Amino acid sequence: MSRIDLDEFSDLIERPDGAARREAEARRERLAVRPGSLGRLDELGEWLAAARGTALVRQIERPRVVLFAGDHGVARLDVSARPAGTAQELLRGVLEGASPVAVLARRLDVPVRVVDLSVDCEPDAFPAEVVRHRVRRGSGRIDVEDALTLDEADAAFRAGVAVADEEADSGTDLVVLGDLSVGGTTAAAVLIAALCGTDASVVTGRGGLAIDDLAWMRKCAAIRDALRRARPVLGDQLQLLATVGGADLAAMTGFLLQCAVRKLPVILDGVVSAACALVAQRVAFRAPDWWLAGHVSGEPGQAKALDRMALEPLLDQGVRIGEGAGALLALPLVRAAAALAAELPEVKAEETEAEAAEETGAGEVARPEE
User: Fold this and answer.
1) Taking the domain 63-331, which CATH number applies?
2) Hey, where are the domains in the chain?
3) Chain-centroid distance, C-alpha 328
4) What dotted CATH number matches 7-58+340-362?
5) Four-residue CA torsion sign, 291, 292, 298, 303
6) Based on the number of CB atoms within 10 Å of its own CB, is 257 exposed (0-12), middle (13-18) or buried (19 or more)?
7) Out of 292, 312, 326, 363, which residue is the most buried by the measure of CB atoms under 10 Å away?
8) Report field, pTM of the whole predicted structure over 0.90
9) Is 355 among the residues known to form the active site?
10) pLDDT tens readout for residues 173-189
11) What is the dihedral of CA 166, 249, 117, 95, to 10 degrees?
């Protein structure tokens, strides 16, 4: 099988419906609540109108959390607060309903899908629907070796495309995207530093569980070493993912691009999904128009990537845990914007004229008689 042609995505991805957005903006001017008084909810409503191709925004009825899971060999350098090879524990916590994202999803009545791409365990440890897209057991140590072979990167990317198609075909109307990884923030930081042309120290964060200073220095050194390996392949995004990414990151990149092709909106979670989005932007510059940044994760790499894509996070609640939890917290806000855009009544024409006349009268200054 020939490798996937990334150039096709630029041709396949269209911008959200500009005409629907303009109609939504015009309708907003006619609502009983003054324009601007709902703050960013107005902007979100107009974005949803464009993404869904209708000025009268439909409710978000079938959202889903999608989590891509994998272990990263670089975690063996003690760059993470979690021991290397323990992504299976994160995955099991989600499946058993005991993780933060599982609890939130249950309360918000949102189904969660977990996709194992490279968790470091036997494939029979989890249900078949979780492991059927698995590419390998763990990814390579990116400071000294490639994360994947090019064929493995291609397979992982295609897996992400397939998952996006499955979600779109099943009627999912919005995705909350996250990761379940150990060492994933290190790989993400390398991708962001490479694509933004920055030094390792600029993008090195402390992860969801806040590593200490020594671990931060080890992480920074690993990122710097991996950056030297990344720079020669910057022109080939699939090779970049194979060299310093990982199976889960390659799949997330393919997933994001295909969601844009299928006009399926996505809420990004933390630095890992932001890094994959940045790679996807390099492939197709229109793709970020289909994504929202869910929250501020506290990782400097995430801030760098979102700034490059001109995406402003919806929330800043200090959530650092990852796993899609922070992005899921933004879902009620997006749903609220959809509800307000759809259900607020329009002001009748005569009421609008009377209000305008009243404002004009209030603005007039009495002139003294001559």
Assistant:
1) 3.40.50.10210
2) 7-58+340-362, 63-331
3) 11
4) 1.10.1610.10
5) positive
6) buried
7) 326
8) yes
9) no
10) 999 999 999 999 999 99
11) -80
